[in-house]
Amino acid sequence: MVDAFAALDLPDLLPGWVWLVGAGPGDSGLITALGLKAIIQAEVVLHDALVDEKLLALAPGEKIYAGKRAGVRSCKQDEISDMLVMLAKQGKRVLRLKGGDPFVFGRGGEEAQALARAGVPFRIVPGITAGIGGLAYAGIPVTHRDTNHAVTFITGHGSDGKLTRMDWDAVARGASTLVFYMARKFAGEIAQDLIAAGLAADTPAAIVANAARPDQDVRITTLSGLGAAAADAPALAILVIGENVALASELAWLART
Ligand SMILES: C[S@@+](CC[C@H](N)C(=O)[O-])C[C@H]1O[C@@H](n2cnc3c(N)ncnc32)[C@H](O)[C@@H]1O
What we know:
binds S-adenosylmethionine
């Protein structure tokens, strides 16, 4: 059998290093080759709740849960960063494994800053973010020549736990496709604000929940129907608003497999 890692000439996760790796939105097959190599080589893996169990099962090293999940004490961001620095300074090969992409609404930037400031060598291994790969699993191209030339990625969740405060007129005037993370419970409020800011109530919209997972749940609606459609959708969800959503009627490939 071909040794793919050798053939690709990938670097090793060295002692004293931290790799910040994105595992993709769900499907274990969406990990990158660098990410997979890090899983196999790491002596310690700090992972969050969104990482697929099958990937974790491949890791021979110690696994430390460092995410937020109901019923489990959640680690504070500073504690995670401190742990990464400490483990690296002990000379361990350290993998920080996150869902999606570590630099997209994933606090990877904060962890990388902590490493940089502590003088710990690190590598960023991008992953497939839910707002792009998750949409692809729903048959929604994030851009399409006939529908949109730009996309805005927005987090719905402000640091105070409420809907992010934003200039809705500017959002409505900007890119014609809007992709919201961490926004399911605010779907109705977001839709109202966008309609008030001038977006048509019949603009296609979707909730893509548990994307790229066995229980993927896609609801295609319109902007005015977004709140009702999101009400009982699973919490792990992306909202997408724009004409590109309508392409799902032709391109929803997963439903056909
Ligand atoms: C803290 S953010 C992490 C985003 C991640 N870094 C990424 O690039 O996808 C968590 C949010 O990402 C979105 N998300 C992550 N995985 C998802 C999935 N499989 N299906 C739908 N939404 C997902 C949801 O909006 C969720 O609330």
